[in-house]
Write a structure and sequence with these properties.
The chain is of the alpha/beta class and 734 residues long. It has 35 helices and 17 strands. It has 5 domains: 201 residues, 3-Layer(aba) Sandwich (Rossmann fold), CATH 3.40.50.300; 140 residues, P-loop containing nucleotide triphosphate hydrolases (Rossmann fold); 104 residues, Winged helix-like DNA-binding domain superfamily/Winged helix DNA-binding domain (Arc Repressor Mutant, subunit A), CATH 1.10.10.10; 92 residues, HRDC domain (DNA polymerase, domain 1, Orthogonal Bundle); 101 residues, Arc Repressor Mutant, subunit A (Orthogonal Bundle), CATH 1.10.10. The chain has a 7-stranded parallel beta sheet with strand order 3-4-2-5-6-1-7, sandwiched between helices. Strands 8-13-12-9-11-10 form a 6-stranded parallel beta sheet. A two-stranded antiparallel sheet has the order 14-17. Bound molecules: adenosine-5'-diphosphate, magnesium ion (MG) and zinc ion (ZN).
Length: 734
């Protein structure tokens, strides 16, 4: 019995897989992909991060005659792969600006002789005429384009050099192309095919579902503390924390370090050897946590990352998915937690201000999707896979592998409003996206509405008693549940599907899931703090009450308002962390050593007694310490005030606003350090006005500025009130 050619190729590939890489089986589509490129077909591979894309071109390159060209965006990434291949005994080289003349000559020689199987190049090196000339003399097998989403402006990682790739490849001759990406939105895919002119390609798409990852979004409150708690609960495990700015990366790494967590920073602004050292330390497990900007992670293959935390919201869901994809590559535990606040989105929008119109529109659209993901009450897996064009049944998100499945959200009757929403899409000719449809439903007048005469439609204003958030929820859930189709390539224009029209003809009961409302949760939190209520709080209620009682007693003895001694949030924290030594107590927010010495003793005694009585293990590990580098500014402020430097001058010396300076000073005071700012106050507030404010604080039940502002009938500016509060606290509390 003779073997077919396909069978020969297949067994040869398999043998090489084992021989070179030591793997005994292909994963997913790998083999089909390899056959496609080996048959000389253009090939397009979409696989999630960690699925094994590199092998899809490495192995075919090894078994082919000549050299395969691999185009890859990052020099570090190339080096990594070349090193790995060399270690497997494969001749792979890279061609980029880091090579000197003689290295360059050696590379060229080995390519021309056919010894080199894979030549990695950055797109910009390929534009050089001399390189093209030399490659024209070489025998080339095919061209692989890794991270191919860099070609699309719609991706999260657009690189203008990638736009010219097709033109360059054409100069190399008629070679088959294999493009690979982990970015899956239909628009990006279409862009890649179009730009590379490989619309005829065989397309291999794997499911993006990562079954072992747990997704969770939390409101961004008390993040630092939540972080410490989380990491200490995952002691000794590897994790990545993503932040948007370099500054935040450094601050946070330092903060974690101070809290006895082995954390290191990573961002493009660090010296390259520091960066490499930190990366290695993480890979070798000398460091548990890497705090990084998105510069970290591409091509990094650490299989046992157990958590990925987004300290700031990412700019797009593609980015989010790629970054979270770095957790649990080995198929075991992987926790993905994002801290979300609308403020972060607003900040990101500001960054986009200076971009060109289309780019700005894209960026805005990506952020809207990001926000919707964070706020959704639906299964997060369903939501995100839908975004990538995959249909997913949330019943499979077992056992509660996202926060919304673990704690199902309340549902509401949506049948009638779903009908309105579908009609709105139909009546506006299916040419608009979610935000316009919601404007039409609410009856909001704007330029679009006016120019398309949508105010003349029956549906205009039909849902005006509900707000934009509500209509967004309805419209989005219709999309995720297949009543709508969103054209991502077209700013998310909504088309009504067959399911949608069928529903309109024969409606049935629809119950949709309520969104999260993080901002409202936040306000709720603040309100709770103000009235000192303990509804659903994590602190020890009984202890809190005891502490409050003690504070009241001492306040009375000393003839001081209670908040001067300790503020409520400080007491709450004591009732959470049970400090039993002066050092521990000094770590509490709003308490410093100064205050501990002045007021701490009876409180420490109370807590110690309570802890023994109730056999509570004091969780010293939840004590959150503040990073030292943060205190640099504090020290500076204290010194300058000591020298009686004008506050305005301090602001300009440190390029901070008066508001920031006041905040810093308030912090200093609440932590128990005296600040004598009479020299400044006397200069700007008349004496009798000073007295009025002072008397007010002496008798007040709270030191909230808002309350003071009202009670004093708005006769003083906020700045005056805050300055006087600092004076008052310094004299009384410290
Ligand atoms: P991607 O580029 O898709 O993110 P990589 O190519 O970096 O993924 O591969 C991820 C990991 O999977 C690597 O450690 C690789 O060695 C491993 N891998 C790839 N294919 C196989 C296979 N067939 N069997 C076992 N491990 C594999
Ligand atoms: Mg890869
Ligand atoms: Zn789920």
């Amino acid at each position: 019995m003779s073997e077919t050619l396909a069978e020969v190729v297949s067994s040869h590939l398999k043998a090489k897989l084992k021989e070179v890489f030591g793997f005994s089986a292909f994963r997913g589509n790998q083999e089909a992909v390899m056959n496609s490129i080996l048959e000389g077909k253009n090939t397009f591979v979409i696989m999630p991060t960690g699925a094994g894309k590199s092998l899809c071109y490495q192995l075919p390159a090894i078994v082919s005659d000549g050299t395969a060209i691999v185009i890859s965006p990052l020099i570090a990434l190339m080096k990594n792969q070349v090193d790995q291949l060399n270690a497997f005994g494969i001749n792979a080289q890279f061609l980029n600006s880091t090579l000197n003349k003689s290295e360059m000559n050696r590379v060229k020689k080995e390519v021309l002789s056919g010894e080199c199987k894979l030549l990695y190049v950055a797109p910009e090196s390929l534009t050089k005429d001399e390189n093209i000339l030399f490659l024209n003399n070489a025998k080339l097998s095919f061209v692989a384009i890794d991270e191919a989403h860099c070609i699309s402006e719609w991706g999260h990682d657009f690189r203008p050099e990638y736009r010219r790739i097709k033109y360059i490849i054409d100069q190399l001759g008629n070679l088959p192309i294999i493009a690979l990406t982990a970015t899956a939105t239909p628009k990006v895919q279409e862009d890649i095919l179009k730009n590379l002119e490989i619309e005829d390609a065989n397309i291999y798409r794997s499911s993006f579902n990562r079954k072992n990852l747990y997704y969770e979004v939390k409101p961004k409150v008390n993040v630092n503390k939540a972080l410490i708690k989380f990491i200490k609960n995952h002691k000794g495990k590897s994790g990545i924390i993503y932040c948007l700015s370099r500054k935040k990366v450094e601050e946070l790494a330092e903060f974690l370090r101070v809290n006895d967590i082995k954390a290191l920073p990573y961002h493009a602004g660090l010296d390259s050897h520091v960066r490499e050292n930190n990366q290695d330390a993480f890979l070798n497990e000398q460091a548990d946590v890497i705090v990084a900007t998105i510069a970290f992670g591409m091509g990094i293959d650490k299989p046992d990352v157990r958590f990925v935390i987004h300290y700031d919201a990412p700019k797009s869901l593609e980015g989010y998915y790629q970054e979270t994809g770095r957790a649990g590559r080995d198929g075991l535990e992987g926790n993905c937690v994002m801290f979300f606040s609308e403020n972060d989105i607003i900040k990101l929008e500001k960054f986009n201000k200076d971009k060109a119109v289309t780019e700005r529109e894209n960026a805005k659209y990506l952020l809207e999707e990001m926000t919707a993901f964070a706020e959704t009450g639906l299964c997060r897996r369903k939501f995100i896979l839908n975004y990538f064009g995959e249909v997913y049944d949330e019943a499979e998100c077992k056992p509660g592998m996202c926060d919304n499945c673990r704690h199902p959200r309340e549902r509401f009757e949506a049948t009638e409003d779903a009908k309105f929403a579908i009609r709105a899409a139909l009546d506006t000719d299916q040419r608009f996206g979610i935000s316009h449809l919601s404007d039409v439903l609410m009856g909001v007048m704007n330029d679009y509405v006016e120019s398309y005469h949508h105010d003349k439609l029956d549906i205009f204003g039909a849902g005006k008693e509900k707000d934009a958030k509500y209509w967004n929820t309805i419209l989005r859930q219709l999309a995720v549940n297949g009543f709508f189709e969103k054209e991502i390539e077209n700013y998310g224009v909504i088309k009504v599907t067959e399911k949608g029209t069928a529903f309109l003809e024969n409606p049935y009961e629809l119950r949709f899931v309520k969104d999260h409302d993080f901002e409202a949760d936040l306000l709720e939190d603040e309100k709770d703090d103000q009235v000192g209520s303990a509804g659903g709080k994590s602190y020890d209620d009984a202890l809190f009450e005891l502490l409050k009682g003690l504070r009241k007693k001492i306040a009375k003895e000393r003839n001081l308002p209670p908040y001067v001694i300790f503020q409520d949030p400080s007491l709450e924290e004591m009732a959470t962390t049970y400090p039993t030594s002066p050092e521990e107590m000094a770590q509490i927010n709003g308490v410093g050593m100064g205050k501990v010495q002045k007021f701490g003793k009876p409180f420490l005694e109370l807590i110690t007694h309570y802890v023994t009585e109730n056999e509570i293990e004091t969780a010293a590990d939840v004590v959150v310490k503040t990073a030292v580098n943060k205190s640099k500014l504090k020290i500076f402020v204290i010194q300058q005030i000591d020298r009686k430097v004008d506050l305005d001058d301090i602001c300009s010396q440190k390029s901070i606003s008066m508001d920031e300076l006041l905040q810093e000073m308030e912090h200093i005071c609440y932590s128990g350090t005296k600040l004598n700012i009479d020299y400044y106050i006397d200069h700007i507030i008349e004496e009798d006005r000073q007295q009025q404010i002072y008397d007010y604080f002496l008798g007040a039940l709270t030191d909230h500025i808002g309350t003071a502002f009202k009670e004093l009938e708005e006769e003083f500016t906020e700045e005056e009130l805050r300055l006087m509060r600092i004076k008052f606290l310094s004299e009384y509390a410290n």
